[in-house]
Design goal:
The chain has about 350 residues and is α/β, with parallel strands linked by helices. Helix content is about 30%, strand content about 25%. The chain is globular.
């Protein structure tokens, strides 16, 4: 089968690899119907260490179950399924506490002998705990929105939940990528009366307004902080969602959060240390939270709105390509020519 591998910064190839097969009785094999390129895939695209064997890519996919192991009881051949970006057993204490990303027996795609979703098929460990069957056909128009439940919608929702967004909280979202835009949608769903989106790309911020942003701030750095402060009578907002992962975005978050507020980070940090001392967080009683979204734990909450059409998170996909064009897709996203790219095998 064909699969996407990255060999060095900027070096993405679609190659032939062996077809996945069942290795454990708890496995399933899923034929990929749609996958996508994530903003976080651009981090290794910029900075990975070169490797002769390459690294498989992709952590978001939906597909049809082709085979199941003898111990799989909740998933059947022919089921259309959503695969969250981490696989988990669904039974350990962390899974029961709603944190499958810390599953004692789970892991993440593209680690060890588990390959990624930018491919024609994937072996899914712990299929009962990981996969979510959905009663749709593989040609359903809902597929783009269903795919967002694999990661970016759940991540945006996680940011809002960890930030304790509600009807009495104002929100700033830093970043107009797919996660930032779906954090706007999530904050709107949770009742935030004011949502300030910090982003520079008009086509994206227009979608942010459609999702519920009340204000857009295009400035960055000190100018961006001053603009948010001006909109909030000098106070800043109760919640700041940092959906970028760079130090400059974190510094903006510190600059626009209201005393007593929350900074919720879901952009994968590209730095090891950050200001948390008296002047930044301690003195004004700021809470710092966030982390990898337990997407599997949110799917049942978010799925009904997708199925009934009351939300359309799939609008974050603005381009669809075939698997062989994935290297060009990476370049397009890196050049900000596309927001998020849908991939069909």
């Amino acid at each position: 089968m064909r699969a996407t591998y990255m060999y060095a910064p900027g070096d993405v190839r679609v190659i032939d690899v062996p077809d996945p097969v069942l290795e454990d009785p708890t496995d399933a094999v899923v034929r990929v119907v749609r996958s996508c390129i994530c903003g976080s895939d651009l981090h290794p695209y910029h900075s990975m260490s070169p490797t002769v064997d390459g690294s498989s890519m992709g952590h978001e996919f939906v597909g049809v179950v082709e085979d199941v192991g003898a111990d799989v009881t909740t998933i059947r051949k022919g089921d259309f399924v959503i695969a969250p970006f981490a696989w988990s057993d669904g039974t350990c204490d962390f899974c029961r506490e709603g944190l499958p990303t810390s599953c004692r027996h789970g892991g993440f795609w593209n680690s060890g002998d588990v390959r990624g979703g930018q491919a024609e098929a994937v072996r899914v460990p712990l299929a009962d705990g990981t996969l979510v069957p959905v009663p749709v056909a593989e040609d359903s128009p809902l597929i783009p929105s269903l795919l967002t439940l694999s990661d970016v919608y759940g991540t945006g929702y996680h940011a809002a939940v960890k930030g304790r967004v509600g009807q009495d909280t104002t929100v700033t979202v830093i970043g107009d990528g797919a996660v930032g835009l779906l954090a706007v949608l999530s904050a709107h769903q949770l009742g935030a009366p004011r949502i300030i989106l910090m982003g520079r790309h008009k086509d994206r911020t227009d979608l942010g307004r459609e999702f519920g942003a009340t204000d857009v701030v295009a400035e960055r750095g000190a100018e961006g902080v001053a603009a948010v402060r001006e909109l909030t009578r000098g106070d800043g907002t109760h919640v700041v969602i940092e959906a970028v992962g760079h130090m400059s975005a974190y510094e903006q978050a510190v600059g626009v959060v209201r005393p007593g507020g929350v900074i919720s980070r879901v952009g994968v940090p590209q730095y090891e240390t950050a200001p948390v001392g008296f002047a930044s967080l301690f003195g004004p009683n700021i809470t710092l939270t966030g982390g990898p979204a337990p997407a599997r734990a949110y799917i049942e909450t978010l799925l009904p709105g997708v199925l009934d059409g009351s939300v359309d998170p799939g609008k974050v996909f603005d381009r669809e390509i075939g698997l062989d064009a994935v290297p060009d897709g990476y370049r397009a996203m890196d050049n900000r020519e596309a927001l998020k790219i849908l991939v069909r095998p």
